[in-house]
Write a structure and sequence with these properties.
Length: about 575
């Protein structure tokens, strides 16, 4: 069921399952979507004993490739031997299933990508602790003969007791001949090492470079080789020195060494940990105490621990067979009710398909915080191959093609008006929030193409500062963290749900046809003010493909001044 039709509300760190999400995988019942990445989608489930797990389901097109499946089985077996305290342990997998999957321990916290997007750069001491913890995770990964290859802020989760590195070994599983031949990108351009960008062998030193790039982003707010187009960032990675101007001076030497062009010039993970421990900012003690994170970030983590609860009378997960080849499922005995687990149903000769989960609604008036403020780089799986010659060396760069999967659309009800929920009554924005225009209102765009219906068009709104955001569902201005389908802003860029796709138009004349084409051919990783100009436009597509919004920028006044936009919202009808 889609989020729009659910009578209940998931806790804010989780996404409702949509029509194209499975309800059960390998005997695990799925309760919410946690996110999506290049290899597939990630869901929340529970073990029979009630422990939450993150279950990643490989994309079908990858499952059809025999080389990928063989490498995936090999890498999962290696990953199960990794027992680092700063990694998310692989607890189960189905490598022989029609669609392979693996389950890891659930980490109750946001990703580093989400933290930096929401709160900005982190303090020097926090960065050092993160660097040490991630370096220790890399030690455990490398000891098992695995190179991560895609270490980035989106693959590091923040728990109360330190970071957890996820997705180790999965990028290597994709590095099979048939898949790289079709253009599957291995790694994220902003964090790639020069040798990786040029198609050379990845080694543990490649992950150290990624750690340095990640730390620069966390400490300074931007990656070391810029925020521009991916091809330009890769060129700078190979040919130019990293920009450490925003990094605190006390971190520049260590991070600069990690970003050395030659792998042999970079420190080992043990040397990185030793340098972090000896830094004056930590006083010789690498301890993840209660104060290791800024208070706002620590508060955000608690929201990820607020797991969806399923009523005791609801049917629950099937019991998976143990082991790495868990492709079949069996029903298990009844278990007592548990606050986070759910009750096991009695066996029946012909069990009905599992219904969508029923979750406990959040109390009214409780503040909600979104799990991420914009789409993370490297979200899709299949890619188009782009060859980039860098000097005398040939560098192969694999460019993402956006995820175009969408949930089945609801048939429109004839004559039914679009009735948005009322904005929150408790806080009134200081800026003007015009009432959404009716369908068919005047706009600079033409009529919606077949398959889309305009919910409103040409609605002009002003957000006084970053304390307010645009609610795309209702066409109003609301306090930040009030909406789920939104456009917000922070530090000179527009922010939006991390599950959404975006495209930056050529000018303010951006229409629906150009938007759909651009989302399919040139998706944007970020929407900074500078990329739009004074009268630019961009569009967003929701994760389920049902909602599409066009945002035309009418005026901006600095990173935190008033921003005025004109909004069009469309709903897919077929």
């Amino acid at each position: 069921m889609s989020a729009d039709r659910s009578p209940f509300a998931l806790p804010s760190a989780f996404q409702e399952l949509t029509g194209d999400d499975p309800r059960e995988v390998g005997g695990y019942r799925l309760y919410a979507r946690l996110g999506a990445g290049g290899m597939g989608r990630v869901y929340l489930s529970y073990t029979p004993g009630g422990r939450p797990v993150a279950l990643k389901v490989v994309r079908p097109e990858l499952a059809e490739d025999p080389e990928f499946r063989a490498r995936f089985a090999q890498e999962v077996a290696s990953a199960q031997r990794i027992h680092g305290l700063y990694t998310a342990q692989v607890v189960d997998a189905g490598v022989e299933a029609a669609t392979p999957w693996l389950a890891t321990t659930y980490v109750p916290g946001p990703s580093l990508q989400q933290v930096v997007q929401r709160f900005g750069p982190l303090p020097e001491r926090t960065v050092l602790l993160l660097v040490a913890g991630i370096a220790e995770a890399l030690q455990a990964i490398h000891a098992s003969g695995v190179v991560h290859r895609d270490l980035k802020p989106g693959n590091v989760l923040i728990a109360p007791d330190g970071p957890r590195v996820i997705d180790f070994g999965i990028a290597r599983a994709a590095d099979a001949g048939a898949l790289t031949g079709t253009g599957l990108r291995i790694g994220s351009p902003a964090y790639m090492a020069p040798e990786q960008a040029m198609g050379r062998t990845a080694t543990p030193a490649t992950d150290v470079h990624a750690l340095g790039a990640l730390a620069v982003h966390v400490a300074g707010g931007t990656p070391p080789f810029g925020d521009g187009p991916d091809l330009a960032a890769l060129y700078r990675t190979v040919h130019e020195e990293p920009d450490l101007g925003r990094v605190p001076p006390g971190l520049r030497e260590l991070l600069g060494r990690c970003l050395a062009k030659r792998p042999e010039d970079r420190p080992t993970t043990a040397e990185v940990i030793a340098a972090a421990r000896s830094h004056p900012a930590v006083g010789g003690h690498l301890t993840f105490g209660e104060d290791w994170l800024p208070h706002p970030v620590a508060g955000q983590i608690t929201r990820h621990a607020d797991l969806p609860r399923v009523p005791a009378e609801a049917p629950t997960a099937l019991v998976p067979r143990a082991g790495v080849h868990a492709a079949e499922t069996v029903r298990g005995p009844a278990t007592p009710p548990n606050p986070t687990a759910v009750a096991m149903p009695a066996p029946s000769p012909a069990p009905a398909p599992a219904p969508a989960p029923v979750v406990t609604p959040e109390p009214r008036g409780r503040a909600r915080a979104k799990g991420g403020r914009k789409r993370a780089l490297g979200r899709t799986a299949l890619t188009a191959t782009v060859a980039l010659a860098v000097g005398a060396a040939g560098m192969l760069y694999l460019l993402d093609v956006p995820d175009t999967e969408a949930a089945p659309a609801e048939p429109p009800v004839a004559g039914a008006p679009s009735t948005p929920p009322a904005p929150l009554p408790s806080v009134a924005p200081t800026s003007v929030a015009p009432t959404p225009a009716p369908t068919g209102a005047a706009s600079s765009t033409s009529a919606a193409p077949t398959g889309y219906t305009a919910a409103y068009r040409g609605v002009e709104l002003t957000s006084a500062d970053s304390g307010y955001e645009f609610d795309l569902a209702t066409g109003t201005v609301v306090p930040t963290d009030s909406a789920t389908w939104y456009v917000a802003r922070s530090a000179g860029e527009f922010l939006y749900p991390d599950t959404a796709d975006s495209y930056i138009g050529r000018d303010s004349g951006l229409g629906l046809a150009e938007c759909l084409k651009g989302l399919g051919s040139r998706p944007a990783a970020r929407v900074p003010f500078g990329a739009l100009g004074p009268r630019g436009a961009f569009c967003l597509r929701s994760a389920d493909g049902q909602d599409l919004a066009i945002v035309r920028v009418l005026s901006t006044a600095g990173p935190d001044g008033p921003v005025t936009v004109s909004l069009d919202r469309y709903r897919r009808t077929g």
